[in-house]
User: Fold PTS sugar transporter subunit IIB from Dryocola boscaweniae.
Amino acid sequence: MKKIFLCCAAGMSTSMLVERMKQSAASRNIEVEITAVPVSDFDQIVSDADVILLGPQVKFQLQSLASAAAPHGVPVAAIDMMHYGSMQGDKVLDHALSLLPDAQ
Assistant:
């Protein structure tokens, strides 16, 4: 099962988006584990992650976090602000899945 982590400032603001992503995955029979975590936990989760998405409030850390994740082979990307703001879990899930190395 693929593990997707959403990092934000405190790990709370992405919780609703995580639920929307889980609903979208379930409706499409996609088995993924999606978790919201504070960006301060990045070092603890990077080795367990298959993909990490950053909330808009921590997007400024994209370059440094992507560099830190590179040795683990974990892609890191920012969540589109429009998708985040409108809680489009399906679009964010599609983005995460497209970053997986074995994405179709």
In short: Residues 15-27 form the longest helix (13 residues). The longest strand covers residues 2-8. The two ends are 16 Å apart (CA to CA). The chain is about 40% helix and 20% strand.
